[in-house]
Amino acid sequence: MLPARIKSAAVAIAAVGLLGGCATSGNPKDPIEGFNRAMFAFNEGLDSAIIKPVAKGYDHVLPSPIKTGVTNFFSNIEDLFIGVNNLLQGKVPEAFSDLGRVVINSTVGLLGVIDFASDAGLEKHDEDFGQTFGRWGVGNGAYVVIPVFGSRTVRDTVGLVLDVAADPVANHNPRRTRDMAIVLRLVNDRANLLPADKVVEEAALDKYSYMRDAYLQRRRNLIHDGNPPREVEANADSADPATNAEVQVSEPRADAATEAAVVVARADQASPN
pTM, whole model, 2 decimals? Predict the structure, then answer.
């Protein structure tokens, strides 16, 4: 199964980067920066050469109602597993709200194409297995850029494997339908993020560092449901630099940085699995 092979190869390359003796950068939140920058450049090239041009064409050709319907359809599928993760995190009311969204949007919303649940006041959440591990107290681990899938931490890389294993789109049969759905989700997600590109290019002197800090800050905010504990100075003598990375994340520049992280975070969720 090609998508599974792509996932396995990408995660394996990341593991080589983490374990294979890459030079330590001295930055506790990004100890394998040399490897990560190389993978970031690869992903940027892939995006510039293939994904972004296709997304631009998609965005130009399709009318807004159709693009909104596609976004809603895939979002409805996500809500089921968002609910599972909320339940695993002990957030029972949120979990029932997520499952309520699935019921409403899958029926009167025509398989999720129309988002009636939001109109009914059921909030859209954003949860995954990486966040669940974080809520359980698992530390970030090192920051790592995975080929194709983009920004992750060690914790989120393990979560990615579970996310893909539970993803009904990535595991759908027949294979031809599954592959078309994966590509459509990727292109649609990338098209939705086209407006953020100009902001990122204008704001970032070093795009790699900007995206890294934005990703780490976004994940921290998600794990703490938008109310992270106050950051403190890390102890340079700490025996756990991965834990230090959790509290040393610099504050990126407002919402633009968050949107920058989403370019990576959402694209790797929609990447071939």
Answer: 0.77
pLDDT tens sequence for the chain (273 residues):
444 454 455 555 555 555 544 556 678 889 999 999 999 999 999 999 999 999 999 999 999 999 999 999 999 999 999 999 999 999 999 999 999 999 999 999 999 999 999 999 999 999 999 999 999 999 999 999 999 899 999 999 999 999 999 999 999 889 999 999 999 999 999 999 999 998 888 877 899 999 999 999 999 999 999 888 886 644 444 444 444 444 443 343 334 444 444 444 444 444 444
Domain boundaries, the chain: 2-270
- Residue ranges of alpha helices (H) inside the chain are 2-19, 33-46, 52-61, 64-88, 92-107, 116-119, 129-135, 154-166, 175-192, 194-203, 207-223, 241-248, 254-270
